[in-house]
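Pilot study result, target chain (170 residues):
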Amino acid sequence: RYGPAREVPVEVRGAGQASRQVNNFCAPDAFDCDKLVAVEVLTPGGNWSSYPPHKHDTASEREAVLEEIYYFEGGPGYQRVYGTHDTLAEVSGGDVVLVPHGYHGPSMAAPGYDLYYLNVLAGPAPQRSMAFCDDPDHAWIRSSWADQVVDPRLPRRVTDARGGSPGDAP
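Predicted structure:
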């Protein structure tokens, strides 16, 4: 099913240097499908996204069991994944980072280089969800955003390639 860019729900998450744009084109409330969840994230140069670090590998009221793939364009940047092993990967256009379990984040855009990633998730639950649990050591970060402004470079807008109205896609 085709969904035009003008109908994609766009949100700006975080604040300050944790500001990022999320294009929810295949999020549970935006697009109907069985298991797949997918969003685009645009992180302006010098900013962090997927932050604070979080996980979604335990079935609970607050967390869904999901495996995750990040496909990157732009960069250079970095992606951290930790749990069983602690990995900090340098990423740029065409790179993929797999997150089968454990905490992940931040995704970091190097200063001067915007970072885009396609974030694809799927899990065994009958209902699609993006529910997650922040790493308790870093959960306080969310409350710090109340006193910060959103990065003025966001949101970004482009024209729908199929000739539709302007949408909020990177």
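One observation from the pilot: Confidence is low (pLDDT under 50) at residues 160-170. A full batch analysis is planned for the follow-on phase.
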